[in-house]
Amino acid sequence: MSIKNILNKDNFSKDDIVNLLKLNENDSNELYDFAYQTKKKYVGNFTYLRALIEYSNICSKNCLYCGIRYGNKNVTRYTMSDEEILESVSYAMDNQYSSIVIQGGEIESKKHTEHINDLIKKIMDLSEGKIGITLSLGEQSYDTYRLWRQSGAKRYLLRIESSNEELFYKIHNKNENHNFQKRVECLKMLKDSDYQVGTGIMIGLPEQTLDHLADDVFFMIDLDIDMIGMGPYIEHIDTPLFEKREMLLPLNERFNLSLKLISIMRIFMKDINIAASTAMQTIDSEGKEKALKAGANILMPNITPLQYKENYKLYENKPKFDELSNEFMENIKKWVSNAGDIIKFDKHGDSIHYKNKQFKVK
Ligand code: 5AD
Ligand code: SF4
Fold first, then answer.
1. Which of 122, 361, 79, 70 is nearest to 239 (CA)?
2. Domains present along the chain, CATH in parentheses
3. What is the DSSP code (8-state) at residue 175?
4. CB of 258 within 8 A of CB of 267?
5. N or C: which end of the chain has fewer CB within 10 A?
6. Does ligand 1 come within 6 angstroms of the Cβ of 234?
7. 279 pocket-lining for ligand 1 (C-beta < 6 Å)
8. Which ligand lies nearest the alpha carbon of 255?
């Protein structure tokens, strides 16, 4: 079947998705263009910005792919003080970011829950309730999610990493800390707590097949998520998964698969938010621009102070940019306009999908 025939269908089958993922580079452009037109129609040709603050690299988990896993003793651990975090929030507000993401390693304790709760309240106070807060703090209890939501956080990112249970346990050792069902439960609890919920996967994992990726697409649709952050897996030398590096696709193929998945999710779910991931920019210097052209609508510049940022290495990435510089903002503007988009500086950029769902309920 030709690509046009597939794209004009109302619903894709699993085979259709696998065929789209197999497209060669030339034909992929047709997929990207179609996804960009879908974005324009359903969420507009707009790009929204979130300032990312990686506030702590202390993590109790041992994900086999991640550079800041608990077991990696080569990492200098840090936690930014509340004052430093609030300074970063002020920087975000002064630089026209109307949303921030607070990301950190995963810790589950009463003290941590209360600390984050206080922090959310302080950020709300500082910004007079104006800044949009997204959290990316891993698996937590239902009560914790609800508490943070009540205090003002409104979006939450928790990637499923892979929706295939078998593959999930090839990248996480199954134990009380790493459990597939718990991850799915958490995503449901987040939805139940009225967050705009984002999830995503890593693309190009060792032993991952196109079938797995097609199933991931259906997983995200079935869960009816509001936002997606997904990107290529990039190996890190200090992690156990590095041993399987011989099995990996070349980086550019992992990148192209990521672009195709962005397009497929845009075409399928239409009004969700999709981020252009940093990992894509790590592989290709035009990564963010290409992701926007393929249907993404969110950029997340990293405003973590430089002295901390270098210790938050999930994968091997030489920071190419000082994302706190004016020059970087000029780059963002260039990528966005090259993609044909307009930056909406003054808007939170809430997921239209989430809003539409609320509307349907009423
Ligand atoms: N390559 C790509 N992405 C990674 N992440 C963690 N380690 C890696 C890696 N080696 C992603 C995971 C996690 C998010 C915070 O970062 O998907 O959910
Ligand atoms: Fe911790 Fe997240 Fe890294 Fe897993 S992916 S080790 S939870 S920071």
1. 70
2. 3-361 (3.20.20.70)
3. B
4. no
5. C
6. yes
7. yes
8. 1
Query: Which percentage of the chain shows pLDDT scores above 70?
Result: 98
pLDDT in tens, 84-94: 999 999 999 99
Q: Chain-wide mean pLDDT for the chain? A: 95
The alpha carbon of 120 is separated from its chain's Cα centroid by a whole number of angstroms, namely 20
271 and 43 in contact (C-beta within 8 Å)? yes
Tokens for 251, please give them: 């980086």
pTM of the predicted model as reported, rounded to 2 decimal places:
0.97
**DSSP string spanning 250-304?**
PHHHHHHHHHHHHHHHHHHH-SSEEEE-HHHHHH-TTHHHHHHHTT--EE--B-S
| Lowest mean per-residue pLDDT among 32-36, 144-148, 317-321 | 317-321
91: its two tokens: 């920087």
Cα(70) to centroid of ligand 2, in Å?
Answer: 8
- Give exposure, 52-87, as e/b (b: 16+ Cβ within 10 Å): bbbbbbbbebbbbbbbbbbebeebeebbbeeebbbe
Q: Is 106 in the pocket of ligand 2 (CB under 6 A)?
A: yes
* Protein residue closest via CA to atom 2 of ligand 1: 233
